[in-house]
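Try it yourself: sequence plus zinc ion, in.
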Amino acid sequence: MAIMHLSDNDIQAYLDMIHNGLPADTRIVQHLENCKICQEHLTQYSRLYEILAVDKGYELSPGFVDGVVAAAMPESASERVNIWGTILLVAGFCLGLGVTAFFIDLRMLVLRTVESFKLFLLSINDILNYDTWAVVPKHHLDMYLLTGIILLFVSVGDKILFRLKKNHYCL
Amino acid sequence: MEDDKKLIARILCGEKEAFTCFVKKYQKLVSHVVFRLVRNETDREDICQDIFIKIYRNLGTFRYDSKLSTWIASIAHNTCLHYLEKKRVPLYEDLTDTETTLSIEQVAETGRTIIDAVISRDIGRCVRKEIDNLPHLLGLLVALYHLEEMSYEEIAGITRLPMGTVKSYLYRARKQLKTQLMNTYLLEDIWQ
Ligand SMILES: [Zn+2]
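Structure, out:
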């Protein structure tokens, strides 16, 4: 009676199972244990699998990665927004100044601004000067302190939130 | 997967360095798909670049319901199919049951390469030449299974072929490679 040897597909199926760490078909294992011809066949396929797994593949040109990055991200969105933001801010400021100068007596405006600033500086001076604290109405002092504390909380909270967000998305 | 998640998040934040890492990490996979499907040497790198730009633009839509490599290979495969369609190159042209026969020029060219390669003991180069002589799709399946270590299921997902078909095409590709190699190489050069 003629011996039925393993087919190419049997041997490849056996190697695939081993390749994927799965248990092989016992019929194939038993046949391989006793048949020199199929063992030879298996050795050839095993070698083929080894060679196919070490093919280095094709080389792309050395500048490929930089080319792709430059094409996909010509300039980062944030950079673009920053440039346009600055241009708009400067343009807006100039326009606002022009319109104000056109409609309002600039000399009066400057004098009033200086006057207000002087008053502001005086009030700051009053707070900082310990000796005059007693003179400053108490409710004013409380208001300044409360404003300061609120501003401090807001800025610290904002920093923490920003950092958490950045860490979450950009680490 | 976790590393890929972090990398993608950084790319979505606009970090160029992260995208550079990403391209370096996956350029082999993309080139395996493109170089096995597209034979026109002048267009291959442009196609690879188009694929990465497509990936970059769609990265925000990746939902982690498959492996990132499978998703990338699918985009690469679809882009190549689109290119081949435009160039009117049939992908499944030579997958009838008869095994591929080489022209006299191809045999001569293969013979020259083989002699060079055997002299330099670069068996990998010989095998690559033999894979190039396989039908496009079979070459791709060999690359995805043996080089990218993808499962039959993943390959079926990428190529949208039934899993049984993927398996039988791969069996056929390996059998053909083994026969070609045995016919052209000295036993001791390749089988030991
Ligand atoms: Zn046998």
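One thing you can check immediately is this: Chain A touches chain B through 35 residues (CB under 8 Å).
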